[in-house]
Design a protein that fits this description.
- By secondary structure, this protein is α/β, with parallel strands linked by helices.
- Helix 1 runs antiparallel to helix 9.
- The protein has a six-stranded mixed beta sheet with strand order 6-7-8-3-9-10, with helices on both faces. Strands 2-1-4-5 form a four-stranded antiparallel beta sheet, with no helix packed on it.
- Helix 16 links the parallel strand 7 and strand 8.
- Helices cover 63% and strands 12% of the residues.
- The longest helix is centred in the middle third of the chain and has 52 residues.
- It folds into two domains: 303 residues, ABC transporter type 1, transmembrane domain (ABC transporter transmembrane region fold, Up-down Bundle); 226 residues, P-loop containing nucleotide triphosphate hydrolases (Rossmann fold).
- 31% of the residues are buried.
- The chain has 17 helices and ten strands.
- It is a multi-pass membrane protein.
- One of its GO terms (cellular component) is plasma membrane.
- One of its GO terms (molecular function) is ABC-type transporter activity.
- Keywords: ATP-binding, Membrane, Nucleotide-binding, Transmembrane, Transmembrane helix.
- It is found in: Cell membrane.
Length: 545
């Protein structure tokens, strides 16, 4: 909010404008009731005109306040959305993978909606009620100093009592947020597996499970609502008894020479101060719960993990060396004392049974996982000392499932970065995309539908390869890049990958005779160990078997 200091100051001022309106209304109401003592039609007429003027002024002040607040609220909420999205986009692979993707969606939708609906509404009222309390105490101080001190003491006492509700309010709001996340994850999982559920006629079972999640979410919301409403009722009850006590005290003063107008005005001011304090702390409790939601969706989670980024730049000139590597994943030992080397410019094929650790090895070599024992070094520099961003700039990935944006072919290749036309053409030719683009009516500006629905599997994969080529990736990681393609397309793409100047580290179950042998080395994972073979050694033995 302090990003726009001047506008924030105007926002606070705008929240306080209604205080003047409230005091004017209190005074005019006191005048109207006090006119009973004077009991003349002339005086009453004057009071009525003053009251109409006060109401008109109040309406104008409200509109001014509203216009002063609305643009600041809009821009601040936009900043919150951007920060929440930025937190996700800038988190490390390790941090990102700690939670389900659907949890992040829940943060961006449900939690931001909770924050949007609660925060500014509560903040406006906190500023208004707090400002009203201060203004009233000052005015009462001029009218009756001891009375003002008494009202201040009683109000602060109420504040301390109501503060007992704070911890529970925050806790219940967080439970609502967590239940929203759980519900979003459950729904996403059900939709992702809907085809299997229908084919096996078990959708009713999952419907019951989903209904339980909905009931749990609604239960959390109900608990939060009941508790916040409950503390408001308790606060109001205490306020009622205090106001009755004030009224009795002021009625005793009226037996002296105090005018009815002054009596009514003092009563309104003192009751306003009490009700302001009664409303203030529940609002502060709810405001704090909104701030906790803000911290949850915008503050980095990196501090809960061991430091994963060093300050040295990634530079691969000669050799990546893995020494005595041990790694466990979710309690399972994946690698036991593994040692091998990766030479710049060579092509490596990772082989092994399902679950042996092939994808895990790629994640270790690409610094996605860093909680291993042993050493991984690049030209003698420890991986853990290397800045993650500098590594990401030098590596590329080709996966079995290619993710494409709903945008043009060119933007999906360049990923919105500026490249020279010559470099774009070279990447397109190398990836075998030239004929594909020539067939499109708009060429490179042809729009890709949701995740490439209007492209074939081979076309989608070639765009992925073009991405890696145009990036000038020093290391290209390929995880089953051709497994879903037919023989002809698979051979063509595998051949393209192996013709690149990059160091290639690939996982593949496919064997393309005459092409797969072009790998320089095979890294075979067996029982947590890695055996390194030349391609000739491995495939000569494998074919013989």
């Amino acid at each position: 909010m302090l990003k726009r200091k001047f506008r924030f100051a105007l926002y606070i001022l705008a929240c306080m404008i209604p205080i003047a309106d409230q005091l004017i209304i209190n005074f005019t109401l006191a005048l109207m009731i006090g006119s009973i003592e004077i009991a003349t039609i002339e005086h009453f007429t004057k009071v009525v005109f003053v009251s109409l003027g006060a109401v008109t002024l109040g309406s104008v002040l409200y509109l001014i306040s509203r216009f002063m607040r609305i643009s600041f609220m809009r821009d601040t909420l936009l900043d919150v959305r951007v920060k929440a999205f930025d937190k996700i986009m800038k988190s490390s692979y390790k941090t990102f993978n700690m939670k389900s993707k659907d949890s992040y969606i829940s943060n961006l939708i449900n939690d931001i909606n909770i924050f949007e609906n609660n925060f500014f509404l509560k903040l406006i009222n906190v500023i208004f009620t707090g400002g009203t309390f201060v203004a009233v105490i000052i005015i009462l101080g001029f009218m009756d100093f001891l009375f003002a001190i008494g009202i201040l003491f009683i109000s602060l006492l109420l504040l301390l009592i109501i503060k007992l509700f704070e911890k529970k309010t925050v806790e219940l709001q967080e439970k609502v947020s967590n239940s929203n996340e759980e519900f979003s994850i459950d729904i996403a999982n059900t939709f992702n597996g809907l085809e299997i559920l229908k084919l096996n006629n078990i959708e009713d079972r999952f419907l019951k499970k989903t209904l339980l999640k909905i009931k749990n979410l609604e239960k959390r919301k109900y608990q939060y609502t009941v508790f916040t409403e409950g503390q408001a009722r308790v606060s109001n009850l205490m306020g009622y008894f205090v106001v009755v006590s004030i009224l009795i005290y002021l009625l005793n003063l009226h037996s002296t020479d105090m005018s009815l107008t002054r009596l009514i005005f003092m009563f309104q001011l003192s009751s306003n101060s009490v009700w302001s304090m009664v409303r203030l702390l529940p609002l502060l409790n709810e405001l704090k719960s909104s701030v906790n939601i803000y911290n949850k969706i915008t503050k980095s989670d990196e501090d809960i993990l061991p430091a994963s980024s060093g300050d040295k730049e990634f530079s691969f000139q000669s050799l990546i060396e893995v020494k005595d590597l041990y790694f466990n994943y979710e309690g399972k030992e994946v690698f036991r004392g593994v040692s091998f080397t990766i030479e710049k410019g060579k092509k490596y094929l990772i082989k092994g049974a399902s679950g042996a650790g092939k994808s895990t090895l790629i994640k270790l070599l690409s610094k996605i996982y860093d909680d291993y024992q042993g050493m991984i070094t690049v030209d003698g520099i420890d991986y853990k000392e290397i800045n993650e961003d500098s590594l990401n700039q030098k590596v590329g990935f080709i996966y079995q499932d290619v993710f494409l944006f709903e945008d043009t072919i060119i933007n999906n290749i360049t990923l919105y970065k500026d490249y020279e036309e010559e470099k774009i053409v070279k990447a397109i030719d190398a990836a075998g995309l030239k004929d594909v683009i020539n067939k499109k009516a708009l060429g490179l500006n042809e729009m890709i539908l949701e995740n490439g629905k209007n492209l074939s599997g081979g076309e989608r994969q070639r765009i992925s390869i073009a991405r890696a080529i145009i990036k000038d990736s020093e290391i290209l990681f390929v995880d089953e890049g051709t497994s879903s393609l037919n023989e002809e397309l698979g051979r063509s793409i595998e051949n393209t990958i192996l013709s690149l100047d990059s160091t290639v580290i690939a996982i593949s179950h496919r064997y393309y005779q005459g092409i797969t042998e072009k790998y320089d080395y095979v890294l075979e994972i067996v029982n947590g160990k890695i055996n390194k073979y030349t391609s000739e050694e491995y495939f000569r033995g494998e074919i013989a078997v």
